[in-house]
Amino acid sequence: MKNKIKVRASASIANISCGFDCLGLSIKEPYDEVTLEFNNSKKLSITVSGKKSSLIPVNPEKNTAGKAILSFLHSIGEKKGLNIHIKKGIPPGSGIGSSASSAAAAVFGINELFGNPYKLEKLIFHGMAGEEVASGSFHADNIAPAILGGIRLIRSYEPLEILNLPIPKKLMCVVVLPDFSINTYDARNMLPKRVPLKSAVEQAGNLAGFTIALYQENYELMQRSMVDLFAEPVRGKLIPGYKKIQNLLKKENVIGCGISGSGPAIFALANDIDVSKKIKTLIINEFKKIGIDSIGYISKVQTLPPQII
Amino acid sequence: MKNKIKVRASASIANISCGFDCLGLSIKEPYDEVTLEFNNSKKLSITVSGKKSSLIPVNPEKNTAGKAILSFLHSIGEKKGLNIHIKKGIPPGSGIGSSASSAAAAVFGINELFGNPYKLEKLIFHGMAGEEVASGSFHADNIAPAILGGIRLIRSYEPLEILNLPIPKKLMCVVVLPDFSINTYDARNMLPKRVPLKSAVEQAGNLAGFTIALYQENYELMQRSMVDLFAEPVRGKLIPGYKKIQNLLKKENVIGCGISGSGPAIFALANDIDVSKKIKTLIINEFKKIGIDSIGYISKVQTLPPQII
User: Of A308, B206, B249, B287, which has fewest CB within 10 angstroms of its CB?
Assistant: First the structure.
């Protein structure tokens, strides 16, 4: 049995506009790195470094990586002590699956240390236990792509069923993270508990349309389908300049754009590197105009699970 | 210019459980036949024969075929008189797109008589005008498959966009029509105006899951995805014996079953002719036990548009 492991897990874009709470994709960067090392106690000892690491709780019950590992250990009936170091490449509260990334790296690593008792799909459940600490809800649209890679549909939560979606060859993802946080818990509580039936039909039609578009590699259909009637109307108001940025992006040749997860990160999909660079700069400049620093990333879909490094 | 035409258009199964108001498929039988013949008046004169034809209004403004033709004539700026005869093979109010079938045959026929000024997709709008007379709502989940054939997703109503879905090779459709009517208008008014966000997410996930299943020809995934959280909980109560029949069908090897459109027709999908025959008999027998006559049909998906006969 190995004693120590270091794992990198990617950020992710949840919702992708039309798939609120049931669609997510993994991107290549940014990422978190989690180091696990057995110690002689029966306890988890957590340290954190990197971006906004002071915001991350180190109590294992309140830390997403810690809680995910506790869930894993509980399920295999082990009470091992571990030193856990989390190096944050993804700022917490940014909307690109920061907590999911730490949880994914943690459960992938602990599974490796124990000789892989679980398949990747089975790790999602433990990752969700970690996610719940951060968001107050049991959801999988970040953790599933963070653990499995690719574009993933959560068809059902009870029982949990994750489906793989095709990745159009030219697809590129742009994310820009403005330098302020939105609390995932608050962002969720803002949402309406009920939605008009008409909106529910439209959202479902768009999610199915997006699914067809991925199979057909039809970027125009992706574009028409990327509409969010559930979260964006509420959460868009939390992001200064959002409406203007969205309108500017629509004039560029983007496939679609929206709020990544619960925000404030803004994402866009494109099928061209020059367009991707242009819109990344555009968003950063718009935030700068209203006094908000931001950082942007361009990446293809990450098709791989977390990596041992 | 031809003076007379006779067109046959198929019944259809709307909703298919997980696709309330945005999914429908065409079946080979039963069907309606509509005969159109120019007369020397400027008026439409409608006669109806066949199943429950006494229930069909003959006022062109209130008749689905009449209204669809009026919409078509208005759009091309013509004021022709027509004798319209509708032979009902599909009883009205049965839930398998009776009004859509008449409207589809009518607009297909009138388009032919005028030398096909419109493509099939463009006829859907006029068919919907006919549908609106019967249901009080502007929907396309029967008329789109009735005009285009196949399995169709209505991704968007404004603007109208109909997407084609793959048809798994072995797919068979069973419909059983109990001998009573449900008024489509009433069945629609019973529905909740708002639904829980959680249900909307689940329904969207299932519709996307069903879409993936069609692409993958994955009957097990189709089965898991065929759940209706919107209409069935309300409309199931209008059909005596529905719950029992559904439970019995689930024990058979069906892919899925539910209420066709607004009912009372019950439909099931299967991938085997013997299973199809068995479940058709099972449903008919269950209705018989509670004193309700019914008639059943087994058919593959109708891939063709309306046929000139």
Answer: A308
Contact flag B212-A22 (C-beta cutoff 8 Å): no
Q: Which of B308, B213, B307, B229 is nearest to B269 (CA)?
A: B213
- Could you tell me the fold of the domain covering A172-300? Alpha-Beta Plaits (3.30.70)
CA distance B157 to B154: 7
Give residue B137's identity as a one-letter amino acid code. Answer: S
Cβ–Cβ contact B163 with A under 8 A: yes
- Report d(CA B202, CA B205) in Å as an integer: 5
Among chain A residues, CA nearest to B163 = A209
Q: Active-site residues of A: which are they?
A: 131, 184
Residue among B8, B5, B4 nearest B147 (CA) = B8
* Amino acid identity, position A249: L
Which carries the bigger pLDDT value, residue A93 or residue A209?
A209
- At B58, list the tokens: 């003959």
pTM of the model as a whole: 0.95
Residue with tokens 């020059």: A274
Q: Which of A207, A216, A229 to mutate to test the interface with B (most CBs of B within 10 A)?
A: A207
Q: Nearest Cα to A25, choosing from A144, A151, A205, A212?
A: A151
Which residues are CB-contacts of A228 (< 8 A; sequence separation ≥ 6)?
A15, A17, A18, A20, A203, A258, A259
Q: Per the CB < 8 Å rule, is B161 touching A224?
A: yes
Q: Does the complex come out with an ipTM higher than 0.90? A: yes
Confidence of residue B253 (pLDDT cuts 50, 70, 90): confident
CATH class, domain A4-165+303-308, is: alpha beta
A contacts of B138 (beta carbons < 8 Å): none
Please answer whether residues B120 and B149 qualify as being in contact, where contact means their C-beta atoms are separated by less than 8 angstroms. no
Per-residue confidence (pLDDT) for residue A168, from 0 to 100: 96
Helix/strand/coil (H/E/C) assignment for every residue in B146-210: HHHCCEEEEEEECCEEEEEECCCCCCEEEEEEECCCCCHHHHHHCCCCEEEHHHHHHHHHHHHHH
Contacts 24+ apart (CB under 8 A), B294-297: B294/B176, B294/B177, B294/B178, B294/B179, B295/B176, B295/B177, B295/B179, B296/B174, B296/B175, B296/B176, B296/B177, B297/B11, B297/B27, B297/B29, B297/B30, B297/B174, B297/B175, B297/B176
What is the domain partition of chain A in residue ranges?
A: 4-165+303-308, 172-300
Nearest CB to B191: which of A197, A215, A225? Answer: A197
- Cis peptide bond N-terminal to B178, omega within 30: no
Q: For domain B4-164+303-308, give the CATH number.
A: 3.30.230.10
Put simply, whether B217 touches A (Cβ < 8 Å) is: no
Q: Which of A118-122, B129-133, B153-157 has the lowest mean pLDDT?
A: B129-133
Given CB atoms, is B292 within the 8 Å cutoff of chain A? no
